[in-house]
């Protein structure tokens, strides 16, 4: 059997697709032959990425405004995808957020609901809505973008970590719910130098990646290969897996 990373004829949806890891994955999927749907809260950013992707790859790119914390927006994204392409083969749940706070006691109910909504409620709704259609059709692959913080949470991102731990559980449950035609897996990044990292303190930015076996933090391009592997038949016997892609940050310690 020859392995293939070709996505020609496939349609891929990526939330949080206008920047960071999601933006890199969009470009990588289009280069591999996929038509893509770019979803985020800011439509103008999505449209800009869509123009760039079409110009550089020749693939179709659809921009859709979607706040994944809103159930109705998730449903609208599904309908827009099927109205434009009639199918979906790959869903990447990348949209996420973790606003900074000083103390755990500062976390309000509104903050909690907002962070849980974007990081867990939205991926749940999209996994069910897309997954059920994939299972009724030609099948597909759902790829969730989590965090090693879900395995070793810290007090600086406690609500985010709780939500991402739920995303790990969702990944495994969806693999059973929609198998064998739909595969569901999760990538767990460590520190990644995206736009979000600009909000970190200078000390935290300097510390990012220090002590990692690979000696550096992650960058968005580091996640294109793993996502492409999970999106294609190269990983045909992989499902229900939570995979660390963190430069060795979460290695087993003696």
Q: What does this protein structure show overall?
A:
The longest helix has 28 residues, at 109-136. The N and C termini lie far apart (39 Å). Helix content is 41%, strand content 15%. The model has no long low-confidence stretch (mean pLDDT 92). By secondary structure, it is of the alpha/beta class. The protein has a single domain (11-245), classed as Rossmann fold (3-Layer(aba) Sandwich), CATH 3.40.50. Helix 1 runs parallel beside helix 2, helix 1 packs across helix 7 (224-231) and helix 3 packs parallel to helix 4. It is built from seven helices and seven strands; from the N terminus they run βαβαβαβαβαβααβ.
- At the fold tier of CATH, the topology name is Rossmann fold
Poorly predicted runs of 5 or more residues: none
Average pLDDT figure: 92
Proportion of residues in extended strands: 15-25%
Going across the biggest sheet, name each strand in turn. Answer: 3-2-1-4-5-6-7
What Rg do the Cα atoms give? Answer: 17 Å
- Number of separate strands: 7
The number of distinct structural domains comes to 1
In whole angstroms, the N-to-C terminal distance is 39 Å
State the CATH class.
Alpha Beta
The main pleated sheet reads as: 7 strands, parallel
Structural class: alpha/beta
Shape field: globular
Q: What is the H-and-E element order?
A: EHEHEHEHEHEHHE
Total helical elements: 7
Helix content: 40-55%
Q: Can you say what the CATH homologous superfamily is?
A: NAD(P)-binding Rossmann-like Domain
């Amino acid at each position: 059997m020859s392995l293939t990373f070709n996505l020609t004829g496939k349609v891929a949806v990526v939330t949080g697709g206008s920047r960071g890891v999601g933006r890199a994955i969009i470009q990588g999927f289009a280069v591999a032959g996929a038509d893509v749907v770019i979803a985020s809260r800011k439509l103008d950013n999505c449209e800009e990425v869509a123009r760039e992707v079409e110009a550089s790859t020749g693939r179709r790119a659809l921009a859709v405004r979607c706040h994944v914390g809103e159930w109705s927006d998730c449903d609208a994204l599904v309908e827009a995808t099927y109205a434009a392409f009639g199918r979906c083969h790959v869903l990447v749940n990348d949209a996420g957020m973790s606003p900074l706070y000083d103390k755990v006691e500062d976390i309000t109910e509104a903050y909690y609901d907002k962070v849980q909504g974007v990081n867990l409620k939205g991926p749940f709704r999209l996994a069910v809505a897309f997954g059920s259609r994939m299972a009724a059709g030609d099948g597909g692959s759902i790829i969730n973008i989590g965090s090693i913080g879900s395995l070793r949470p810290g007090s600086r991102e406690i609500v985010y970590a709780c939500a991402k731990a739920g995303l790990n559980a969702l990944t495994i449950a969806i693999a059973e719910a929609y198998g064998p035609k739909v595969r569901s897996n999760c990538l767990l990044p460590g520190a990644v130098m995206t736009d979000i990292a600009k909000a970190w303190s200078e000390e935290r930015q300097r510390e990012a990646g220090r002590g990692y076996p690979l000696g550096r933090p992650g960058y968005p391009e580091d996640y294109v290969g793993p996502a492409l592997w999970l999106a294609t038949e190269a990983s045909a016997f992989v499902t229900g897996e939570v995979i660390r892609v963190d430069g060795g940050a979460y290695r087993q310690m003696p």
